[in-house]
Every structure is written in C-alpha cells, then in structure tokens.
Fold this protein.
Amino acid sequence: MKKHIFWTIERALLLLVSLIVLFPIFWMFLTSLKRPRDAYSISLNFKPTLDNFAMVFAEPWNLGSMVLNSAIVAGVTVLISVPCASLAAYSFSRFRVKGRKILFFMVLSTQFIPAVVIVLPFFLMFRSLGLLDTRIALIIVNLAIVTPFVIWMIKGFIDAIPVDSEEAAMIDGASRLRVIRDIVLPMAAPGILTSSIFCFILTWNEFLFSLILTRRDAVTLPVGLVSFRTERGDLWELMSAAGVMITVPIFIMAMIIQKHFTRGMTAGAIK
Amino acid sequence: MTEVRLVDIEKRYGGFLALPKQSLTIEAGEFLVLLGPSGCGKTTTMRMIAGLEDITSGDVLIDNDRVNDKPPKDRDIAMVFQNYGLYPHMTVAQNIGYPLKLRGISKAECTARVLEIAEKVELEELLKRRPSELSGGQRQRVALARAIIRTPKIFLMDEPLSNLDAKLRVTMRAELKHLHHELGVTTIYVTHDQMEAMTLATRIAVMREGRIVQLDTPKKIYSEPVDLFVAGFIGSPSMNLIKGEVENGFFVAKGVKIPVQFSDRCDVVLGVRPEDLEIVERQRANIMAPVYALELTGDATLVTIKDGATSICVRGPADFEANIDEVCHIAPRKPEKLHLFDKSTGERLNS
C-alpha cells in the first residue's frame, strides 16, 4: 500500500516536470502555426497556417542559409572531432604512458574555462587572421569546445571493452591499427555514434561564439533567432517557426539515440 | 616442433619485482604446465612469451630466435584465454576464421577450413551464432578452434577450463590432451588446479612468489616434492604434514611414533599422503588418535583423525566403519613414502 502511494506520487511529479519542460516547446509549435494577430492570444481556437515557415525562408530572413551554415559547421566539426577523439580516447584508455593522468586532466580542464573568458581572445585572433564571419572560424572554435568532451565520452565506452578480445586479435596476427579497426571500433560503435550525435547537438546549439564571431555570412540558426527582434517589435510567430527548425533535427536525433543516451552520459562517470 | 627458452628473464612493475631472474626451457613438443596459486607469476610468464607483457631483462627465444622486440602477431603463437577473448560482434564462423582472414587467405579456402575445424570441435551447428548466444563450454570450443585453425609454433593456454563446470572440465581436459597428442605442438598451460596439471602435463613447473620451485614430471613432483609448499599444493586430499621431531630413529609427535631413517633433529615436518597410510590393528599402529570425521567418496573412505593440533587424513577402505571419537590405529604402508622436511626453511631433508 505504502509502495503504491509512493508510486502514484512519483508518477504525478514526473508528469508535472514533463509538463513544465514540454509546455513552452508545445506553445512554440502552436505559435509557429499562428497568424501575427493570433500570436499573443492564449486561445487555442485559431486557424493554423504554414505561412510563417515560408516567410522565414524568404528574404530578408533567409533562414535557409543559416540552416546550411549550422549544418556545415556541426557536420564538419563531428567529422573531424569524432575520429580524432576516438584515437585519443583509445590511447588514454589503453596505453600506460607516464603522465597519462595529468594529460587527461589537462584535456578535461579545458572544459572548466567559461566560454565568455576566451571569446574575446578568439575574436582578436580570428580578426587578425581575417577569419571573422567565416564557417572555418566556427568549426575551429567548436572543435576546441567539443573534442575534449567527446574524448572523455568515448573513453568511457572503450574502457568498457574487455582487453581480452584485443589481445586475442593481436595474437591471432593483427597489428595495433588492425585491432582498432576490426575489434575496437565495431564494439565501440554504439558509443561512438552516441558521442557523434551529442557532439552535433552541442555544436548545433552553440550560441555565444557564433554571436561574437559572425556578422552576416556565417550566421548560424541560434544567432539567427535574435534577428526576429526588430524595430517593429518581437515577431513571435516567425521566431517560433525558426525555433521549430532548430528543434526538429535535434529532436529526431535525440529519439534515435535515446536508448544509448543515458548510458553515454554515465559511461565515463561510472568508471 | 618448437623449443622455447626463457633465459634469465626478469619482470618488474616499477619497483615491484614480480618475477625474479630465472631461466626455463620448454622442450619441443612438450606440454608444460605452469602451476601455482594466484599471483605467483605464472600468467605473467606466459604473457611475456606471448609478447603481451614487456620483459624487464633477459631473453625469450622461440626456436633460437630472440623475440623480445617482436609484437605478438609476429611470434606465430596461438592463445586460449581464461575468458576466451572472443570477438562478440562476430559470428562463430568469423571468430574462428579471423586468424586466416588476417593472413590474406581467400574466402573460399577460409570457409572450408572453418568448417573442417568446426567439425573437429563439434561446432558446425553453431557457426552462424554470436558468442553471446553460446554456453561456456561452446565458447571454450570456439576459442580452441580459433587457436588450432592455423598450426602455430606454440599454444599458450591461460586457465582455459577454469570457467567451466566440473563435469565439462573433465571432458575438455581429455579433449585437450588428445589434441596435443594429435597436433604435437609445444604447449604451455597455466593453471592453479593441480589436478589439471597432473593429468595434462609432460612436465610441471610449480611456481611460488614468482619463482619456479620445482620443475619435473608429474610423477616425480607427486612422489618427491622438493619442499613443504609443493608437498602441500599437489595432491587431493593434500599430503598430511605433521610437525614433530626425530628422536632415536623415530619421528615423534602427539599420538605419532614412526620409525624413520634419519638422525636426531628438532623442528621437522613429516609428510605422508593419505593413500600411503592404512588402518591397522592396534599392535602394528604408529599413529593413534580419535576419529574426527568420516567422508565416503565412493571407492574409499577418507578418515580424519585429530589429536590436539595434529590432524591426519587416511584413505581407508570403502566399507570402513567407526564412531566419531573412537580411537583409530594407523600405520604407513611403505617407509620410502615418508617425506621429511625442515620446519623453518621448508626444504626436503631425506631423499
């Protein structure tokens, strides 16, 4: 009986939390389907329209180029970061090199520095390199932010792979690289996939550096969202439509990796 | 056939000396068992031969070829691991065929060889399964098949039977022995199970704290253990070790007075195996003590008698009957089956 009550309370609380978290997202979806005059109304009785989506992709908002920027920056960051991080994670996991712990700590310690502290030096550096408002600059910055985290995450997965299989492969006649290709990567694949998507999401949502380092050409979606605050006021229905465009890909990805996601989050921590 | 020589090898982990300097020659075609309690360095020794562990100093020679700096893949060895070391993402067939795949052998030939080997270890029904869908014994056979699919110079086996249940262990033991007979490949086998060592080995190296204390045939190790450690480690039930002293041609302890060919000496341990003792009538008895426990094993009765700190086990006939605390009379069968050891150093005193 006691257990039953506890269970009911637990469920009720979970439902409440879900509602609190999901309601704004739900409301954003609704607003994206509303006409401007309905945007401030709290009535659910309105005629839905897709005009807002057509508007944000047209001039002057040009959301399409922002989607492209975001996709390229996030995609290239993943493509460079994950292979490098996988090799680094393997090394940290397997080779008993002197100073390994300090090195690993140094990699992680980059995550302790607040972004605001380094955004200005980055701005100055890229300005003198002539890379301001380019995707390359964003990719470089995102690599620096994301790679240590991905190393840490993938290391957790590789740590969980028994060394036995690797040693068996080496004795069967495989070189170290062959072992990584034939044994480690296939076994760590779910973890690496999870880390890749995680890395993509982090980069996709990155705001501060994009805001400071881009102006017109390389603007990404989260920064683009700000441009809907105009002299005519906040264009909520357009902002919501853009918000949906930001959310949907992440939402789909999160669904794909849902199963591995919590494992990925805790893999490093359990060790 | 291949000879393996370990010359003055030593292994240190930082400041910790895991294996002190020693040499060992494993003769061509031999089945050598490294036997010892856990942490005695037997697995480390094997891993150094395999190339999975660096050698601090000394040389490993395989067919007179120094392999210290060769990676495992170039040593032409096959190994069966305690936890099998299978590739969980591959099917049984892929697991077995992996060594051939690495050697660039054609797919058709590979498939044919896998089938041939699978039949040999009775796995042909399971080729499409993954290791996670197999029982312990089946996994064991996959690991074995993967090791024998190519004929390596040496087989290394690291406690390959320790994860199997008792019955399966006996069956697999016989299979391993037959396999060695059939292939004639030099085999090094690590175990802490003295029974496995006795049944499989051509020679046994008994190890303790990194050192090989006795290297000999199973028969010799059983009948002439060099010290108390080997005496107590080999044999089940283990050898009776009785603390006492030699006085006027008799070994004396509480309830024990046995004639021995040895000069007077204090602090001696007498070793005698349960099967080298017999239950006798009162007049002939050298040992007298109350019965502590009776254990029927089927073909015999193990009788434990206890007097104070001295506890002695004797293998009596299956139909032997006695009450607990009833005094039992015991005598050694043959005087040459008595072993005397120094109590403090553990060394054997008589030869």
Remarks:
- The interface with chain A takes residues 50-52, 71-73, 75, 77-79, 81, 83-89, 98-99, 102-103, 143, 146, 156 of chain B (CB under 8 Å).
- The helical segments of chain B are 42-50, 92-102, 107-120, 136-148, 166-183, 194-200, 218-223, 228-233.
